[in-house]
Known about the structure:
The structure is a homodimer of 330-residue chains.
Chain A: H1 10-17, H2 21-28, H3 35-48, H4 54-61, E1 66-71, H5 77-92, E2 96-101, H6 106-118, E3 123-126, E4 141-144, E5 154-157, H7 159-172, E6 178-184, H8 193-204, E7 210-215, H9 221-229, E8 231-232, E9 235-236, E10 240-243, H10 246-258, E11 268-273, E12 287-289, H11 292-304, E13 314-317, E14 320-322
Parallel strand pairs in A: 1-2, 1-3, 3-4, 4-5, 5-13, 6-7, 6-10, 10-11, 11-12
Antiparallel strand pairs in A: 8-9, 12-14
Helix pairs in contact in A: 1-2, 1-3, 5-11, 7-8
Chain B binds a DNA duplex (16 and 16 nucleotides) through residues 1, 9-11, 14, 19-23, 25-26, 28-29, 32-34, 37, 52-62.
Amino acid sequence: MKQKENAPTMKDVAREAGVALGTVSKVFNSIPVGEDYRRRVEEAAKRLGYQVNSYARGLKTNRTCSAALILPNVTDPFFAMLAQEVCSALAQRGYRTILSTTAYDPEAEQRCIQMVQQNKVDGIIGLTYTPDLDVDPRLPYVSIDRYFSPCVPCVSSDNFGGGQLAAEKLLELGCTRPLFLRIGSKVPGESDKRGDGFESVFRQRQMNCISLRLNDEESYAPFRDFLSSRIEGGRLAFDGIFCVNDALAIQIRAMLLELGLRVPEDVQLIGFDGIRRFAQDGFYCSTIVQPVARLAETSVDLLLREDRSNLPSLVCLPVSYAAGGTTLEP
Amino acid sequence: MKQKENAPTMKDVAREAGVALGTVSKVFNSIPVGEDYRRRVEEAAKRLGYQVNSYARGLKTNRTCSAALILPNVTDPFFAMLAQEVCSALAQRGYRTILSTTAYDPEAEQRCIQMVQQNKVDGIIGLTYTPDLDVDPRLPYVSIDRYFSPCVPCVSSDNFGGGQLAAEKLLELGCTRPLFLRIGSKVPGESDKRGDGFESVFRQRQMNCISLRLNDEESYAPFRDFLSSRIEGGRLAFDGIFCVNDALAIQIRAMLLELGLRVPEDVQLIGFDGIRRFAQDGFYCSTIVQPVARLAETSVDLLLREDRSNLPSLVCLPVSYAAGGTTLEP
DNA sequence: TTGTAAGCGTTATCAC
DNA sequence: GTGATAACGCTTACAA
């Protein structure tokens, strides 16, 4: 229980090197020190296998070089990519990642924040579904995909632009009877703009665009009912479907096939996210790809920014389109 | 230097509650204290929004309530599941998870360990590919899927048993011409036993079993060459293939289809791991399912065990078979 | 330049 | 039971 196999401390190093404690500290903080001393300290440290205790250091400096990442889970491919990239981006800056998963549970989300604040991290990057999260304003917080307030920076993909892009692509590919499908949390989030962007393109062209938006629904059944009710003479009322994310697009494709419709010949399908099975694989479906690495880097950038007086409240990053077999590419 | 913005400390709480510092500490450590005092302290703490600083506590107690998890990445579905479960298991015990990803780079792996030791975590759970990792023997370490030495507990699935199970299943399903396919690191690991178990079943029955094992190969091309060279008159020399993991099984299936062979009609295929696209989805292929949650729980158990004098050096957890469309189920 | 000493927020050991 | 007080390992004025 008690790991009293005392690890060497700075004091030990100082004694071993025959210098003062402060000198050792200076060496480990890259503060100029006599070349002779430096070598002696470094050698002594290596001999003893000394490592600075960053908690003791943090206690003194109020910086712990660690940040928390809060996600619903890490198994959904998009969250997995995000975790991966955030973790790398933080590591690149010499920061550790404390990972917390919440399973979409507001209580767990709040508990995470609590826990993490207690742990005196230097900041939090959170992708959460609680609208009124109680987070210490002294602690840097960056939100992904959910806007809280002007003083909490939110990083997201250009969801609106992505929706537009999907619409333009479908138009380009010859679709004239569009449909937007959405399922997800009823808590408003940036991703709601995907449908808005999609619809705006058709509205602008005075084309009709149908939408079906489901909140906190357990199953995809309503989509099936809706779709099958819109089939007449073996022909679907829509020829281009935009799904709020790839997970839904995959389900819808399977559903359409079951209903006797061919994808992409009868209906073209575009998802959102850009998930893959393995990093080297192709996409599951034609999709609007989120720039996950840039999302992560931007979040980390904002989180670790020294000057916190002038932070943007919302940063949108450009998305791109990728064909993935559910559209009729020329 | 002295930020007045600083979070309240025990001293503040003590002053606010009109008690001594030590009393406050006792309250927060569930050490018996007068009911009257306890209430006063708790109220004062709530009023001030006080949270114990666990780094300061850790400095004193040598326990930080956090453990490190080292994985190659968190995007491969199996690693993602593992990360998820380890993170939950640790959280359940009141431990934080520090996540480090290494991209299979031995240097990164060593760097992680270094970093993490510096951070004075209470232990490390690692799935690594460096045979001679240099880890402080004072720090509890649990290895997943790789055996290091008797004093470093290793947790893995019953890989040998899983291989046997795959063989028995294929036999049961009528296969008589088995093949084992493997690709991966040349560093020996527990997962090597999958093929051994598979082969042992056929050896015991004095049946022939062919194996193709690739080390650190970049591409799957050698498999394609091998397979196409074993087709005669449109018929493959094998009717049951066991792949070392699902990722490979998925590739092999695609390859077989391209070669004009039907799965499972002409060739049956079993993978290993039990990965899915989303938690609610089915498996990609028929597979030997690893008990990921139990793997995680066992690792955490072993890591946090108080009495470290009598730890097992290898724990194998039972796997199970699941049909996933690449076998001809009765 | 180098050494010294005063904390950082907690816990733990004592007298009381 | 309560309340000073000494660590814990480190940084950082400040003194030498």
